[in-house]
Write a structure and sequence with these properties.
heterodimer; A: 371 residues; mainly beta; Methylamine Dehydrogenase, Chain H; 4-stranded antiparallel beta sheet; 30 strands; B: alpha+beta; Ubiquitin-like (UB roll); globular
Chain lengths: 371, 98
């Protein structure tokens, strides 16, 4: 029997929702780790019952949890994220040097093939890897030390490595995105890295061709076409057709091109979704209407999806890690809001309904398609 | 026997209820108590003090015998009442954050 499991991280705990393939009735489990901030919960593609969760608070720091039974039980694993060597400094908000300091894990990206290997994107920005199921962590220092690191500056939410994409066609190729530094690519399994930000245009940056300094919010890739990347930047929705070597804007007719998440349809590599947000100073949707925008043309031509979503007096945000798709025959789309609602569409965005509401503010949403 | 009282989040993480009771060899200091606590409950590593520097996390406080011991040197002896087990050593999540 097929079904889906939705993994939700919130400001005050984790929730696991399950449903059969109809996606009509949902069982809600949680809160797991109540009271803790859960930046991300995700599952291993190689072993779907293996889940990882990033749990933290300002009081007690970082904890990594692992479940080997699909979220029924959890065990704390290794939480020692020590930078490799003397980490040196990056730029602070005022441009002065600031020591690299670990704050939390924003994003966990399990290996596509090995259930014991998982990557962690952290604040202050760095990439870590565990090859023993999250028991121990080692930095991949080539990213932080490739040369531009001392010039990275934090975004308003901190200097976080929030996106990790593994190329399914080339195990040596991976991408990482950092606010507010930009996108980086490795072609040797994370050993060496280089910035790939050519074509990005970032507001008031004095040098629009700057190698780093771009506030990338999220990347998305369709596994069948890994050289094509989609990006929601601070402002602008962007696309690359050459694995990040160059970028061009595809914001087209969007009402605003500010936003956080971006996702690609599971079966249609040119169908892309974003949730436009009013502006960087108004972190809520436009005109009180919660609208997902879909392009079926790989960008530029967008349509508003509103059926079942609130169209008045709605002022929520949708964060970068809070939208995901399932891979059932009729692709399901899911997103969570700062107001604690998680909406799902079983028909690729045409119709929506809340599958849970009144949760704490949602930080992340991941979906597992179970067979 | 040293008695340690943990905040609710850390009791949940360590899967304990009530006080934690610890044997501490030698002089009873903050460092010795926390070393023993982390040895008994490794899931608490990094949650009370930094794993590398062993410094107290900023929003964690240590109280005992109606005194705030948070800023006392970690190798100073704790009060006799703590060492004798008549008073607990309190690990507190600071009341901060709004």
């Amino acid at each position: 029997m097929t079904g889906v499991r939705v993994l939700i991280g919130t400001r005050k705990g984790a929730f696991v929702l399950t449903s059969d393939g109809t996606r009509e009735q949902w069982d809600v489990s949680g809160p797991h780790f109540p009271g803790w901030e859960i930046y991300h919960v995700t599952g291993s593609p190689a072993e779907p019952n293996r889940l990882f969760a990033s749990q933290s608070t300002g009081w007690f720091g970082q904890v990594i949890q692992r479940s080997d039974d699909g979220g029924l039980s959890w065990e704390p694993k290794g939480n020692n994220f020590a930078y490799d060597g003397d980490p040196g400094t990056h730029q602070w908000y005022d441009g002065t040097p600031h020591p690299w300091e670990f704050a939390r894990v924003w994003h966990l990206e399990p290996s596509l093939s090995d259930p014991d290997t998982v990557y962690a994107g952290v604040e202050d920005a760095a990439l870590f890897r565990s090859t023993d199921g999250a028991e121990t962590w080692q930095e991949l220092p080539g990213l932080r030390t490739h040369g531009s690191g001392p010039f990275w500056q934090p975004g308003a939410g901190g200097m976080c490595l929030h996106t990790i994409i593994l190329d399914p066609s080339d195990p040596a190729r991976m991408y990482a995105a950092i606010s507010a530094a930009g996108v980086f690519r490795s072609d040797d399994s994370g050993t060496t890295w280089r910035p790939i930000n050519r074509g990005l245009r970032s507001g008031d940056l004095p040098d629009q061709d700057a190698e780093v300094g771009h506030c990338v919010h999220r990347l998305a890739m369709h596994p069948s076409r890994p050289e094509v990347l989609f990006m929601q930047k601070h402002w602008d929705v962007m696309r690359s057709d050459d694995a990040g070597e160059s970028w061009h804007e595809i914001s087209g007719n969007l009402p605003t091109d500010f936003g956080f998440p971006i996702a690609v349809h599971a079966h249609e590599p040119d169908t892309v979704y974003v949730v436009p947000i009013t502006s960087d100073s108004h972190h809520f949707v436009m005109d009180g209407k919660l609208r997902v925008y879909r392009s079926r043309t790989g960008g530029n031509e967008w349509e508003a999806l509103t059926s079942g979503l609130p169209q008045q007096n709605c002022y929520v945000n949708v964060l970068r890690d809070a939208m995901a798709v399932d891979s059932l025959d009729s692709c399901g789309l899911y997103f969570g809001t700062s107001g604690g609602q998680v909406y799902a569409s079983p028909d690729a965005g045409d119709n929506w309904a809340p599958i849970v509401r009144d949760l704490p503010a949602v930080l992340s949403v991941e979906v597992q398609t179970l067979t | 026997m040293i008695r340690v009282v943990l905040p609710a989040h850390l009791r949940a993480l360590a899967r304990v209820s009530g006080e934690v009771q610890l044997e501490v060899d030698g002089q009873v200091t903050q460092r010795a108590v926390l070393d023993a606590l982390e040895a008994r409950h490794p899931t608490l590593l990094g949650t009370v003090r930094d794993q590398a520097t062993k410094q107290r996390r900023p929003f964690v406080r240590f109280y005992a015998c109606q005194e705030d011991l948070s800023h006392e040197p970690p190798d100073d002896p704790l009060p006799v009442a703590v060492a004798e087990g008549t008073e607990p050593f309190l690990v507190i999540g600071a009341m901060a954050g709004g």
